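Q: Could you predict the 3D structure of ABC-2 type transport system ATP-binding protein?
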Amino acid sequence: MALLKTENLTKKFGSFKAVNNINIDVQKGEVYGFIGPNGAGKSTTIRVLLGMLKATSGTASIFGKDVWKNAVEIHKHIAYVPGDVNLWPNLTGGEVIDLFMKLRGRDVNKNRREELIERFKFDPSKKCRTYSKGNRQKVSLIAAFASDADLYILDEPTSGLDPLMERTFQECVMEARDQGKSILLSSHILSEVERLCDRVGIIREGRIIESGSLDELRHLTRTHMIVETKQQVTGLEDLQGVHDIDIKGESISLQVNTEELDKVVRHISQFGVVKLESAPPTLEDLFMRHYEGNSGGEA
Ligand SMILES: Nc1ncnc2c1ncn2[C@@H]1O[C@H](COP(=O)(O)OP(=O)(O)OP(=O)(O)O)[C@@H](O)[C@H]1O
Ligand SMILES: [Mg+2]
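A: Sure. Here are the predicted structure tokens for ABC-2 type transport system ATP-binding protein:
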């Protein structure tokens, strides 16, 4: 069941299309990774989903309700964490956590709140104006995970967290998912995306250029091979799915589309393999290709 769904969602600023005809959906009980380079349109999409911006065209719904018309109703059941958290400077962290939770119209679950404060090693007694960026993010994260939301919308929620706290955050996301909650996670931390997300959508210049489960995307990745052969290998450049051939003396280094691996290995084996090394494909390589702009078109 899709808890969140957009259909041909478009948001223009003047004549500029920040979000261009995007279709995404987040199913119950899944973590959906929303990734793409700076300025791609992630936060704009999220602001439309939160009812902070009105879509230019297309539709967006959460819990089957229109995000613009039913924002107040929807907000009772979602938790939102932005990357840039602004707080009330004269309230303490603890007061703001309570305030955030009350604004969501729910009673404060004291035990859960205390548990998260402990896990995030957070001191709630200080005035917000004294908190570092990471500590401001903790306020927002603790309030979000302490509230019993059905859908968490997290827009680069960990850009200020240290590695230990990043791990705590990941545990919280996995626990929420295990309880059947849904999470939309926008992130530049690719290892975080790879670890947490069931499916991802890659957005670039307002358009979704790739989407699917991580397993599906893995098929789009390339294996790095280094080979040495008895006879000189010929005809490699004519094979489909072979990239970045680099010949250094006896040794050839190349990238191979994972789905073409079998064919390429067969071809090379005709020349008498002396040495063969291969490095498994990483999703990070795939993501980086999209960030860099070679949107894999030729892959
Ligand atoms: N209020 C606005 N008025 C005009 N242009 C805007 C506005 N908000 C965003 N944009 C433009 O829309 C595009 C998408 O911005 P958005 O903030 O959605 O990117 P993003 O994917 O969240 O990037 P980042 O990874 O840097 O957070 C950018 O080119 C941005 O300059
Ligand atoms: Mg953003």
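Q: Anything worth pointing out?
A: The chain has two domains: 2-217, 222-280.
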